[in-house]
Amino acid sequence: MSELEKMLAGEWYWSYHPDLMAMRARARELFTQYNQTLNAEKEIRNTILTTLLGSFGKDLDIQPPFYCDYGTYIYLADNVFINFNCTILDYAPIRIGNNALIGPNVSLYAASHPLSASHRISKGSDIAKPITIGDNVWLAGNVVVCPGVTIGDNTTIGAGSIVTRDIPSNVFAAGNPCRVIRSVAD
């Protein structure tokens, strides 16, 4: 099994394998090009995003600067807005639903490392778990979403929250660690 296959299967893998490093270098070239575009250059931006991302729907708006590790494992639905300075570590699939609003300085981290220092040093292994963000979700500024988290539809995550576990649909959640504060009805 290749390191890429291990990564995508949620198994321990070596992130410094030359194939994975080359894939990340490609993504860096593409998001650097994207970050240098002007707001009026929509066609150029869409061309870059078509090459960079796994997929995206209609009416995508990503405000530069934008950063990711692979890009290939990012899947965005329709009408997604991503504000300035978003960082996505897409070592596993990251799926963002329709009408999602991603605030400034939001970070989505699908990658994790061993807790044991000796394991990190001797084996250098990483592990990745997918992140799923439902439809109509708003992640306010400076939110961090950790590996393996699912955020349900119609949910708002308050500014500065660190989401370490699943959050259900139709709630407002906030804090460190993020927890449900109250239900939200439309």
UniProtKB/TrEMBL annotation:
<dbReference type="Pfam" id="PF00132">
    <property type="entry name" value="Hexapep"/>
</dbReference>
<keyword id="KW-0677">Repeat</keyword>
<comment type="function">
    <text>Acetyltransferase implicated in the O-acetylation of Nod factors.</text>
</comment>
<keyword id="KW-0012">Acyltransferase</keyword>
<dbReference type="InterPro" id="IPR024688">
    <property type="entry name" value="Mac_dom"/>
</dbReference>
<dbReference type="InterPro" id="IPR011004">
    <property type="entry name" value="Trimer_LpxA-like_sf"/>
</dbReference>
<dbReference type="GO" id="GO:0008870">
    <property type="term" value="F:galactoside O-acetyltransferase activity"/>
</dbReference>
<dbReference type="Pfam" id="PF14602">
    <property type="entry name" value="Hexapep_2"/>
</dbReference>
<protein>
    <recommendedName>
        <fullName>Acetyltransferase</fullName>
        <ecNumber>2.3.1.-</ecNumber>
    </recommendedName>
</protein>
<comment type="similarity">
    <text>Belongs to the transferase hexapeptide repeat family.</text>
</comment>
<dbReference type="InterPro" id="IPR018357">
    <property type="entry name" value="Hexapep_transf_CS"/>
</dbReference>
<dbReference type="InterPro" id="IPR001451">
    <property type="entry name" value="Hexapep"/>
</dbReference>
<dbReference type="Pfam" id="PF12464">
    <property type="entry name" value="Mac"/>
</dbReference>
<dbReference type="InterPro" id="IPR039369">
    <property type="entry name" value="LacA-like"/>
</dbReference>
<feature type="domain" description="Maltose/galactoside acetyltransferase">
    <location>
        <begin position="4"/>
        <end position="58"/>
    </location>
</feature>
<keyword id="KW-0808">Transferase</keyword>
